């Protein structure tokens, strides 16, 4: 039988990788469609709001990576036991996403000198603000970001922290052993380990 | 009995207003704490990640406006009937939030000429891209943004679209009768009408 889910994104981890991790963790088959950069202009016009990833299921298509990840996290039981716990997870995910919002500018900047200045600002003001605070959360939460156990917030942090390294050209978590521990624990899950072995090799 | 919920934000609608609407809609009492701008530096240090709104309940504090709104929306039953429907709502909310992300720069820009240029770009590239697409969604969805009925996505759009008018100095929804209809329907709900009569008067 063909997979019931089709996930469409570019041929990079980026904003689709949390969803790919969640599919892998739950053992849910999915069609991993990867758009070639040269085909993007044509594909873009067909997307609901011109963005990917999109998820197709039962003939319906939705976009927005974090909305899709939240849906998949419920399926694979990486969510809270009640709605307050889900609120705590969602708040953590949105805080991690605030970091992402602040580093987008680096990718968009074409001028080398300006890009370098932006990277320095990200390291100081963004990583320097958020990471010590998240590190303290992991310390309070038994080695996880929230609720003292594995949730999809840990998956999102794990996949996004790769992007931190790409942006800065450094091992950003080197001075944050607890946050590094989150990434190591997630990537050591047998299902995720396997996914990282079989996934298409890309630049990061 | 004192209210069980304390919502803390600045003395403006902004990113707290969807939550205030949801409390009002559900008839849930809440303490509506409004920080004075001059006290913000001291208060900021006490917030989990230096941001508001925050919600306090049973001695716990969480931040992130959309996470809080999603939690309240479940309480007052403005969510989906199943998890796919919740995904559709969440995706719509995140699309509306993409508009907000793109207009933040206008508020941050201090230089008048640059601010004017940014406003023109927002009108053309942001409103001009998203609003016709959202207008078409409302047309397909019986006068609502998603699922063909009232959800918290309509509440978020209603409160945020005020900010569109503030940013642009125009009645941004004038050429989008369906979107304008969403706002009018939400604001005509007896509980919301009452809230808008009794809420503290602010600049917008």
TrEMBL record, chains A, B:
EC number per UniProt: 2.5.1.18
CDD domains: GST_C_Sigma_like (cd03192), GST_N_Sigma_like (cd03039)
Source organism, top-level taxon: Eukaryota
Catalytic activity: RX + glutathione = an S-substituted glutathione + a halide anion + H(+)
InterPro entries: Glutathione-S-Trfase_C-like (IPR010987), Glutathione-S-Trfase_C_sf (IPR036282), Glutathione_S-Trfase (IPR040079), Glutathione_S-Trfase_N (IPR004045), GST_C (IPR004046), GST_superfamily (IPR050213), Thioredoxin-like_sf (IPR036249)
Protein name as it appears in the record: glutathione transferase
Enzyme's top EC category: transferase
Domain GST N-terminal: 3-80
Pfam families tied to this protein: GST_C_3, GST_N
Location of the GST C-terminal domain: 82-204
């Amino acid at each position: 039988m063909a997979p019931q889910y089709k996930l469409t994104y570019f041929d990079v981890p980026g904003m689709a990788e949390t969803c790919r991790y969640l599919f892998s963790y739950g053992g849910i088959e999915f069609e991993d469609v990867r758009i070639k950069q040269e085909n993007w202009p044509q594909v873009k016009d067909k997307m609901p709001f011109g963005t990917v990833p999109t998820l197709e299921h039962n003939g319906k298509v939705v976009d927005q990576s974090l909305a899709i990840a939240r849906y998949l996290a419920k399926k694979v039981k990486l969510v809270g036991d009640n709605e307050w716990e889900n609120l705590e997870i969602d708040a953590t995910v949105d805080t991690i996403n605030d970091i992402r919002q602040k580093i987008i500018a680096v990718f968009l900047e074409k001028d080398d000198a300006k890009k370098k200045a932006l990277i320095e600002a990200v390291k100081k003001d963004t990583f320097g603000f958020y990471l010590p605070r998240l590190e303290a959360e992991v310390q309070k939460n038994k080695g996880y970001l929230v609720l003292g156990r594995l949730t999809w917030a840990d998956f999102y942090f794990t996949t996004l922290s790769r992007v931190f390294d790409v942006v800065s050209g450094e091992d950003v978590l080197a001075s944050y052993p607890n946050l590094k521990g989150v990434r190591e624990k997630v990537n050591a899950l047998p299902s995720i380990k396997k996914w990282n072995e079989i996934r298409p090799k890309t630049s990061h």
